[in-house]
Amino acid sequence: MALIITDECINCDVCEPECPNEAIYQGDSIYEIDPSRCTECVGHFDEPQCQQVCPVDCIPLDPAHMETEDQLMDKYEKLTTLS
To answer: pTM to 2 decimals?
Structure first.
């Protein structure tokens, strides 16, 4: 499943540059994650990089976008072949 940034976000700017899929962007009030681009870093890293650097631990799994590891890998492959 994709990740989501919760209202606890403090807009510290550390997550956006860590995302290898450019899924994180500045929203109206906090950073947001485009679920169509989020692979939880599958294909790039062993763990989601945004979660690793977030100082307030506000990037959980998004229950609205459930995906298997295989689906995340398929999304990664599609995103990297478009680049």
So the answer is: 0.92
